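Input record, target 12 of the design panel.
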């Protein structure tokens, strides 16, 4: 009886911690969102921003806030959520912190398709987004199929994904070297992961994709946590692991591929958000939504740093790369010591 009470107390304590963490992250996210709307060449007060958002006409402020800053902020928010949730989903399914879309080639596949469309086919941004999303999904399914064999293997999927990523990076380099030098700058801007040039017409489709596939992953979060405990236990509890795994992977791939097609590959968000969320709330708690908030915070904060904290303005992907690369090295060293790689 005493043991049951201790278990229940532990559960309630973890739940309160998760709720408190969520509230704090929501406050930070909201603060960063308003900061992105307030800061720029012309700084506006929070009162002015709110008046513009509710539809009031203010000379100068409407264009700067509604046309320039609002799409940028919404893109950073939605892409951060999408990449973080997708990364956390992959890491949980494969039970490996290296199993991020950045590492196993999914982001790179969308990038390769986009670069080909920009530099070789000269397609519009709309067509480029569609093709890069489709190709990202195709490559993800190919990696999954090759790794399945007779029995699905987490390590096999990661190794195949790393191999595919290397091949696609070589393809991108080849296209860049042989492209017209006047077109390369656009591709480089896109490859660096940037929120520049985002328009409201890009936000509607990004919002729909983010909501649909985030809701699917949240709905299956309980199954995801059980799959994390192992294949045998999941099957014993009556879960169709292959079906759930495929739905989760497809949902995560859609989030990554479409986000990448809009902003380019914003590196390490998918890689960092899941581990950070687990550090905050523990491994036993549901952390999909929390990881999404962390992803949004990382993107928004990195964009603010890249735009205003340094002497030169840098795309958001450059800042996230600087933040994520040391963590990747530390993780590789830890896994090597444990014999995990």
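The sequence produced for target 12 reads:
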């Amino acid at each position: 009886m005493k043991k049951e009470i201790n278990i229940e107390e532990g559960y309630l304590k973890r739940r309160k911690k998760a709720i408190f963490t969520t509230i704090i992250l929501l406050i930070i996210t909201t603060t960063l969102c308003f900061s992105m709307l307030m800061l720029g060449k012309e700084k506006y007060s929070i009162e002015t921003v709110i008046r513009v958002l509710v539809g009031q006409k203010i000379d100068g402020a409407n264009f700067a806030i509604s046309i320039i800053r609002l799409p940028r902020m919404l893109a950073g928010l939605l892409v951060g959520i999408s990449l973080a949730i997708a990364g956390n989903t992959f890491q949980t399914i494969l039970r490996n912190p290296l199993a991020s879309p950045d590492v196993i080639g999914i982001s790179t596949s969308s990038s390769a398709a986009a670069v080909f469309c920009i530099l070789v086919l000269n397609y519009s941004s709309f067509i480029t987004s569609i093709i890069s999303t489709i190709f990202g999904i195709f490559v993800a399914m190919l990696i999954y199929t090759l790794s399945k064999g007779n029995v699905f293997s987490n390590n096999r999927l990661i190794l195949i994904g790393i191999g595919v990523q290397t091949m696609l990076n070589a393809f991108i380099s080849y296209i860049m070297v042989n492209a017209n030098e006047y077109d390369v700058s656009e591709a480089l801007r896109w490859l660096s992961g940037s929120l520049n040039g985002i328009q409201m017409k890009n936000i509607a489709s990004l919002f729909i994709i983010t909501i649909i596939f985030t809701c699917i992953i949240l709905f299956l979060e309980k199954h995801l946590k059980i799959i994390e405990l192992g294949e045998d236990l999941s099957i014993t509890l009556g879960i169709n692991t292959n079906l759930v795994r495929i739905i989760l992977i497809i949902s995560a791939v859609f989030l990554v591929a479409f986000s990448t097609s809009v902003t380019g590959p914003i590196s390490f968000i998918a890689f960092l958000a899941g581990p950070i969320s687990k550090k905050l709330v523990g491994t036993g708690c549901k952390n999909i939504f929390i990881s999404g908030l962390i992803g949004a915070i990382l993107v928004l904060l990195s964009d603010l740093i890249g735009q205003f904290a340094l002497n030169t303005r840098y795309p958001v992907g450059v800042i996230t790369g600087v933040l994520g690369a040391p963590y990747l090295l530390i993780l590789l060293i830890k896994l090597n010591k444990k014999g995990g790689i």
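The domain at 2-338 is CATH 1.10.3470.10 (ABC transporter involved in vitamin B12 uptake, BtuC).
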